[in-house]
Amino acid sequence: MLPNNSIVNNVYLGSDGLVAHAKQNNTLIDCSTVSPGVEEKISKTAIRHQVNFLDAPVSGGVKGAAAGTLSFLVGGDPQVLETNKDLFQAMGKNIFHCGGSGSGQVAKICNNLILGVSMVVLSEALHLGGRLGLDPKVLSAVINSSSGRSWSSETYNPVPGIMAGVPSSSEYAGGFATKLMVKDMMLALEEAQRCGAALPTGAIATEMYRTLAERMGQKDFSSVFLHIQSISK
Fold it and tell me: What broad class of enzyme is this (predicted)?
């Protein structure tokens, strides 16, 4: 997994890149999260070299990787996916064929847009409840038994001390860095601008993460809870 468009493009399509050195009928699989257009370009170049290519970003986080329960969101030739399915199944629990080249990235960008926004609003709700005197453990239990529950509330609570084994209980170390969440949210905004889709809530959440990343870019993105605390009166 590589961190951004430029690096992925260079690794695959550079003069000394993977596509140039791959043998005929080899399969290249990219699990990075980047722009769909980058993967489409790599795929077209790979086809000209008679090389197979799949974009296969993942969802499930560090816990999913350790447990072998990742979801792979795959774009590309379904026959190539079928041929390599054992490889994906060795690392993950769910393998989705999303469509043609780049479609795996579309699915990942949309998923992470939800993740980023939902963590912000969960942090706001838990902060509000705390300010109004409600125990965050009690409020978290209510949320997880009610219509407000989400992946973040159930498995990734942003309030320190509420849930064991998550970044918020380890000073927000590890997990998914805020700077990477900024990158993924920006990918969503860029694709939205390209196709004319309005993302008003996504834009607001992105600015919050951008501000947070200036101070805590390496900390887990759930540290947005601290940002919300810091801007409160």
Answer: oxidoreductase
pLDDT of residue 187: 97
Superfamily, domain 5-100? NAD(P)-binding Rossmann-like Domain (3.40.50.720)
Tens digits of residue pLDDT in 62-108: 778 888 889 999 999 999 999 999 999 999 999 999 999 999 999 99
pLDDT given for residue 3 in this prediction: 87
219, two tokens: 């900390």
Cα(101)–Cα(105) distance, rounded to whole angstroms?
A: 9
Q: Is 108 a catalytic residue?
A: yes
Assigned architecture for domain 107-230: Orthogonal Bundle (1.10)
Considering the candidates 41, 108, 137, 183, report the single residue annotated as catalytic: 108
